[in-house]
Every structure is written in structure tokens, then in C-alpha cells.
Design a protein that fits this description.
By secondary structure, the protein is mainly alpha-helical. It contains ten helices and no strands. The two termini are about 30 Å apart. This is DUF4175 domain-containing protein.
Length: about 250
């Protein structure tokens, strides 16, 4: 099995797990007030969603070992594809024609991604100064998006997507650094980046939980869009990744 195909398969299974977690989070968020967020810690369903997120994240890490950021991250849109029928089933309704059209368009777009973003397994990593610079810029952006104001759900969803996308970029750096066997397994650089990953992953989870209070559809779509944009920006600008087809591939 080629590295690209393996990355696609792992991303598919990861997306299904993420979809299940997102649906569970949305159903919990709909029953949770601002004053009751801490009560989630006492709910088994919330911990099940955390477990699904963790399992999906591990599969995502494995996919990043074999595929580039510009390939793996857009495949996260499969989360939205899986969440539509899953959410409808749990809500006891049929998937609407509009939702099916959106799903079909998403799959068509992902087909184009597979053509333009396929490439060899990644071998470049972020340096510690680059990782810290990305962290600072991302933290500032998340602070702006998470501030009080209008449309908090969509802004929190954007912040969650950015946090998760950056966490994935940093995760790829750790995965490649650990598995290339060219240095110590736990160098201080790897430990620093791993701490940053944990911070962004936890922040993304909490931000998405807040975003889903207003419903699943729009916030999940925003998370799914912001995530690959953030990761691809890092991959293209700092990791030397390229899209096949030049300008046409970028479009």
C-alpha cells in the first residue's frame, strides 16, 4: 500500500471518529448552560466524546506520518460528511436534500484534493524558533476570535479549527522527528513541541464544545474549513510542501 493511500485510509477512519465525537459534544452542549460547563466532567457521555477525540487524534497522527499536511488536513472535511447522517439519525429525522447536496459537493472537492495534494511522505520539520513563532501568532489570533461579542459560536469554531490545524502541523513535526531515528527519541526540542501540541489540542476541544452550543451544522463546517487552511498555510510556507499542478492545483 502506498504512503498516500495509507494516509487517506487512516484519515477516513479518523474523520468518522471525530464525527461521532462532534455529534456527542453538540448534544451535550445543547443541554449545558454557561454556569454548568464544569458539570460536563461528571458526565460519562462527555468522557466518551473525549475518548473518541483521542482515538481520532491518534489515527490522525498516524496519517500525518505517511501524508503531507496539504493532503491529510483537507480530508478532515470527511468529518462533516459523516456527521450529517449520524446527527440526523440520532435526532430521529431524515437527511435533507440540501444536506445531501452539500455532502456530494464536499466529496467532489476532496477528490480534487487527492489529485493535487498527493505526494511523498513528509520529511521536513519545524524548527523550535519556527514552532514558537507559529504558537505566538496563533495564540494572538485565537485571543481575538474568542473575545466576547457577536456570533460567538462561529468565532469559537474558527478559533477551534485554527488551534487544531496548528496542533496537527506541530504533531507532524514531532512524528517525523521521532520516527526518522536520526537523533534522540525525546530531545528537548521534541518535548517543547509536544507541550505546545497538548495546549492547542486541549484548547481546540474546549473551544469546539463552546461553539456547538448553537447547533452542530455551521460550527462544525467552520471548524472543518479553518483547520486545513491553518495547517496548509504552515505546510506550504514553512515545510516546503507543494501542490501538484502549480497555480491550477492551488485553485
Amino acid at each position: 500500500m502506498s504512503a498516500t493511500l495509507l494516509a487517506v485510509v487512516l484519515s477516513l477512519v479518523s474523520a468518522v471518529a471525530y464525527a461521532g465525537a462532534a455529534v456527542a459534544q453538540e448534544r451535550l452542549a445543547a443541554r449545558t448552560t454557561d454556569a454548568g460547563m464544569l458539570r460536563l466532567l461528571a458526565r460519562g457521555a462527555w468522557w466518551w466524546s473525549v475518548g473518541l477525540n483521542a482515538g481520532a487524534a491518534l489515527l490522525h497522527v498516524a496519517a500525518l506520518k505517511y501524508g503531507t499536511l496539504t493532503l491529510v488536513q483537507p480530508l478532515g472535511a470527511l468529518t462533516l460528511v459523516a456527521a450529517v447522517p449520524l446527527g440526523a439519525r440520532l435526532a430521529g429525522r431524515r437527511v435533507s436534500a440540501v444536506e445531501w447536496r452539500g455532502t456530494a459537493l464536499t466529496l467532489a472537492g476532496l477528490s480534487a484534493v487527492l489529485v493535487t495534494a498527493s505526494g511523498p511522505a513528509p520529511d521536513d520539520v519545524l524548527s523550535v524558533p519556527q514552532a514558537l513563532a507559529v504558537t505566538g501568532a496563533t495564540a494572538a489570533l485565537i485571543g481575538v476570535l474568542a473575545r466576547p461579542g457577536a456570533r460567538p459560536g462561529l468565532r469559537h469554531a474558527s478559533a477551534s479549527g485554527v488551534a487544531s490545524g496548528v496542533a496537527s502541523a506541530l504533531t507532524q513535526t514531532v512524528t517525523v522527528a521521532v520516527t526518522d531515528r536520526s537523533g534522540p527519541l525525546l530531545s528537548w526540542q521534541v518535548v517543547v513541541v509536544a507541550v505546545l501540541i497538548a495546549a492547542f489540542a486541549a484548547g481546540g476541544l474546549l473551544l469546539s464544545q463552546t461553539a456547538y452550543r448553537g447547533g452542530l451544522g455551521a460550527p462544525l463546517a467552520v471548524v472543518t474549513l479553518a483547520n486545513p487552511i491553518a495547517a496548509a498555510a504552515i505546510g506550504l510556507s514553512l515545510l516546503g510542501e507543494r501542490l501538484q499542478g502549480g497555480a491550477a492545483g492551488l485553485l
